[in-house]
Amino acid sequence: MRTPPAILKFYLRLGIVMNTRTGNTNCLWKRDFVLLIFTGLMVLLIYSLTTEKIRTERILVSKLQEKPVLCPVAISEESITPLKNTKHYLVSAFMDQRVKGFDIRIIGIFKRDSINPLHCSFCCGGVCNKTSPATILPHSDHFGFPYTATDVLCQIPKNCDPSSVTVLTQPSSNASDHVFIPIRNKKEEIRFNFTVCISSLFGDYNNVLQFAQTLEMYKLLGVNRVVIYNTSCGPELERLLQSYRQEGFVEMVPWPIDRFLNPSRGWLFSKHGGDLHYFGQIVTLNECMYRSMERSRYVLLNDIDEIIMPYKHENLVSLMNSLEPQHSNVGEFLIENHIFPKKHFEPSGRFHLPQWEKVPGINILEHIYREDPERGVYHPHKMIVKPKLIEQTSVHEVLRKFGERYKVPLEVCRIIHVCVSMRGYLKLEELNEDKRLWD
Ligand SMILES: *[C@@H]1O[C@H](CO)[C@@H](O)[C@H](O)[C@H]1NC(C)=O
Ligand SMILES: *[C@@H]1O[C@H](CO)[C@@H](O)[C@H](O)[C@H]1NC(C)=O
Ligand SMILES: *[C@@H]1O[C@H](CO)[C@@H](O)[C@H](O)[C@H]1NC(C)=O
Ligand SMILES: *[C@@H]1O[C@H](CO)[C@@H](O)[C@H](O)[C@H]1NC(C)=O
C-alpha cells in the first residue's frame, strides 16, 4: 500500500462532489444511480486497500483523479518569477541528480543579505503538501552586487513524480498561494552537437552586420542552436532575430530583468552600481548551460562579438572529435581571446560590399589584424564546456565542475573578437595579419 491517504482524501472529496450533485430533488433516479456507483467504488476501494494489488489501486486513482482533483496551483511560464515572502526570484528548475542526495536544481537570483532557510514544495498525485529542505548555494562570482545567481538543491519526496516545484520559507506554508515553476530536462535527448549561449542583449544594441555575420559563421562551424537572452534590442536587429528564430537556429528567451531589478550595465559593483552584475549575465549563462545539458553535447559560452575559431580543423565538430579522445575527462576547454581592432581595415576592400553599406554594424571581414595579448597581465578566456560535467559557471571560467580543465593551444583554436583595441598604442606593423575568417 503506497498511498492510502491520497485515496482516502480522494474518496472524501468524491463523496462531497456526489452529495452536491444529488442535492437536486428533481433527479431522484440520478441520485440512486450515483449511489450505486458510489457503493461500487467503495467496495473496489476497500478491496484495493486490503490486498497487495498496488497496480490496480494506482490505475483506479489516476482514472478517478483525471477530472475533479487537479493540483490547483499556478504554474509560471515566465523566465523570472518573484518568490513570495522573500526578496528573491526563481528562474528555472531542472532535473539534476549528479550531486548525491539531490534531484532538483533551481536556478534563481537571490538577495545575498537575505538568504534564510527554504523548503521545496511539490505536488504529488494532485496533493500539494509534500516538502523537502532546500540547500542554497549562492554563486561566488557576484562582483560585489547585492543580488547573485543562486542554486537551490532539493530532493524529490518518495513516491512523487512532480512536474513543477516552488520554494517556501516555512514547510507549513500553504503551497496553493505560491507560484510553481515547471521542472525541465525530464525528457530530453541529445539532438545538438554545439549550442552557443549569448547572455543578456539589452539597450538599443543594433550591431546587425556583425551579428548576422557571426551567426552565419557559427553555422559554418557546425553550431546547431544559438540561445539568446533578450531584454531589449534595436529595430533592425529585432527583424534579423525574428527571422533566425523562425528558421529554428536561434532560440530567444525573454529576459525582462529590468522589470524586477536595476540591472547593472557593468561588471563591478563598486564602479558601476546597480542590483545585479551585467544584466544577470551569470544567471543566463548557467540557465543556458542547464537548458542545453540533456540536448547538446557541447556548449560554447561566449559573447556575440566573439567567434571560437578552430585554426587547424575545418569546423568545431572535427576540432572536438580530435580533442575528445585525449581529453575524455575534460569538461572545460579554455579558449584564449584575441582582439582584432575595428580601427584597422583590410586595404583591398574585397569585402567592403555595396549591399552591406546601409546595414548598421561592423563588417568583421574587413578587420584582419590581430593583437597579441600582453603576456604579463591577466588575459581572459572563454569556454567550450561539456555541460554534463559542469555544475556552476562564471563568464571566464567554470566555478564548480565534475571534470577537468584543458587550455586549448593557440595554434589549435582561438577567439576572433572584433572590437575596440585593447593595446591601442601598437602600430599596424606590430599586429599579426590573420585572414582565418576569410577561409
Ligand atoms: C498531506 O495530505 C495527505 C492527504 O490529505 C495527508 O494524509 C497527509 O498527512 C498530509 N501531509 C502533510 C505533511 O501535511
Ligand atoms: C490554501 O490556499 C488556498 C488558495 O488561496 C485556499 O483555497 C485554501 O483553503 C488554503 N488552505 C489552507 C489549509 O489554508
Ligand atoms: C553532430 O556531429 C556528427 C559528427 O560527429 C554528425 O554526424 C552529426 O550530423 C552532427 N549532428 C548535427 C545535429 O549537426
Ligand atoms: C526582445 O524583447 C523586447 C522587449 O520585451 C521585445 O519587444 C522584442 O520583440 C524581443 N525580440 C525578440 C527577437 O524576441
From TrEMBL:
Single GO MF descriptor: glycosyltransferase activity
Transmembrane segments: 33-50
Protein name: Glycosyltransferase family 92 protein
Family affiliation: Belongs to the glycosyltransferase 92 family.
InterPro entries (alphabetical): Glyco_transf_92
Pfam families the record matches: Glyco_transf_92
Gene it is expressed from: LOC111946869
PANTHER family associated with the record: GLYCOSYLTRANSFERASE FAMILY 92 PROTEIN
Keywords: Glycosyltransferase, Membrane, Transferase, Transmembrane, Transmembrane helix
Any one annotated GO CC term: membrane
Top-level taxon: Eukaryota
Cellular compartment(s): Membrane
Signal peptide positions on this chain: none
EC number: 2.4.1.-
Topology in membrane: Single-pass membrane protein
Lineage: Eukaryota, Metazoa, Chordata, Craniata, Vertebrata
